[in-house]
Transmembrane protein 18
Amino acid sequence: MEELQSAVNAHFDQMADLVEKLSAEFRSGMKPAYENFMGFFHAIDWKEPWLIGLLSFHAILLVVVFTSRKNINFQMFLFLLALGGVYLAERLNHFLASNWKSFAGQNYFDANGLFLSVLWSGPLLVIAIIILVNTLFSLCHLIVKWKRAELKHRARTARSKED
């Protein structure tokens, strides 16, 4: 029995070493990504009025999405609006890159559109996903309601045939 216990303990020690090595490698692999993100975050002047307006727009849109969660037609309009904003992001990036001096302190709009993808398209896609999940839940609820009504109808039909 002692041999079995020592074998199990050796196995647990080996697994603990493996997990420790894996987590250390994962942390070291994530360090450059974290440093790039922090560099991106610190390179932005978050006190610029247009950035505050952009973040406020996304916050207001998110509140509107949550408050209108029962109105599926309006949600579909917001869904298409959000996806339309993502679709037009490249054109918007080119327009803003050529006119950045009129509203921004520095040129955030590179040719690849990273800034606009992170601060414009990213939140719009998150909002679109929230709308999509809400729509799926609403459809599931509707299917359950429909099936209950169908079963009640079948039960009523069966009762009327017995009489």
